[in-house]
Design a protein that fits this description.
Layout (H helix, E strand, L loop, with lengths): L2 E2 L13 H10 L4 E4 L8 H11 L2 E12 L2 E8 L6 H27 L6 H8 L7 H10 L10 H5 L12 E2 H10 L3 E4 L13 H9 L4 E5 L5 H14 L2 E4 L21 H8 L1
Parallel strand pairs: 1-2, 2-3, 3-5, 6-7, 7-8
Antiparallel strand pairs: 3-4, 4-6
The structure holds adenosine monophosphate (AMP), zinc ion (ZN) and fe (iii) ion (2 copies).
The site of one fe (iii) ion (FE) has 4 residues, from loops.
């Protein structure tokens, strides 16, 4: 069984439609794929329908933008009630924050002579419920300012970039509680990525486990072997599930993030979602 529990479609900043993503997951030899768009569940229906027709199991998920001690932390949620009122309200706040900062970031780019309109961004974000920096980057590429999405982050869109504007993110503990209250499973995505590694200490993960956190994503391209060994040790001590996943974004990220490049062991999957 090959299981990939973290992928993005064009309902956030991936490039495949949800159905294309599931077709690509099947072609990559996966048996289980979770669709985890940023802050949105609008891809679930198409992905599940495609999975049924192809015979690949689709887990319904999300990657929620959260904040913990001032740092950005991404929280994966699985198989929760998408109509849970408090969770929907919190996601609405996050999505509104995404929309609100777009014109502010475009104004900063304009200050530097880069002319990107909201219509340019909308042309790139298309069906996305969650618009973000990658769509601004794509608009910069479409207008010939850059050759690839990645180039926009250095100097412009990264948190220390000239066009960066912060946005609302859900408090992490509250997000964990909301996912649990909505009947789902909560797993921290790439906990020791740059930034979040400083705040997601063993003690912090213990506090989160006590609040209901189910697992942590250990096998992710952002983690080197030392980080993985450290996270495995913490997971074992705290009884947290260990997942592995690609964080696939279609052509929005490089080929090293291909579907199934990192996978979740069957026993861990069964503990989490079985
Ligand atoms: P946002 O959702 O607007 O906060 O933008 C963050 C998203 O941009 C992340 O989820 C990644 O998919 C993408 N991203 C972040 N850093 C980079 C980078 N250096 N190159 C390309 N994409 C990036
Ligand atoms: Zn993304
Ligand atoms: Fe993430
Ligand atoms: Fe992701």
């Amino acid at each position: 069984m090959r299981i990939d529990l973290h992928t993005h479609s064009n309902r956030s900043d991936g490039t495949d439609t949800p159905a294309e993503l599931v077709r690509n997951a099947k072609a990559a030899g996966l048996d289980v794929v979770a669709l985890t768009d940023h802050d949105a569940t609008t891809g679930w229906e198409d992905a599940v329908a495609e999975g049924r027709s192809l015979g690949i199991h689709v887990v319904r998920g999300i990657e929620i933008s959260t904040r913990f001690h001032g740092e950005s932390v991404h929280l994966l949620g699985y198989e929760f009630d998408p109509d849970h009122e408090a969770l929907v309200a919190e996601l609405r706040r996050v999505l509104d924050g995404r929309e609100g900062r777009l014109p502010q970031m475009l104004a900063r780019l304009a200050d530097h002579g880069i002319d990107i309109t909201m219509a340019d961004v909308a042309a790139q974000s298309g069906d996305a419920a969650a618009s973000g920096r990658p769509h601004i980057a794509d608009a910069m590429v479409a207008k010939g300012y850059l050759a690839h999405r990645d180039e926009a982050f250095d100097g412009w869109l990264n948190s220390d970039g000239k066009a960066y504007v912060d946005r609302y993110a859900a408090p992490l503990l509250e997000a964990v509680r909301l996912v649990k209250d909505a009947g789902g499973q909560a797993v921290i995505a790439h906990p020791w990525s740059r930034g979040s590694d400083a705040v997601l200490t063993a003690a912090a993960l213990e506090e989160l486990a006590a609040a209901g956190l189910d697992g942590i994503e250990v096998d992710h391209n952002d983690h080197d072997d030392v980080a993985r060994a450290g996270l495995r040790d913490i997971a074992r001590r705290l009884g947290l599930v260990q997942t592995g996943s690609s964080d696939y974004h279609g052509t929005g990220k490089g080929p090293e993030f291909s579907l199934g490049c990192q996978t979740t062991a069957v026993d861990q999957y069964e503990r989490l979602l079985g």
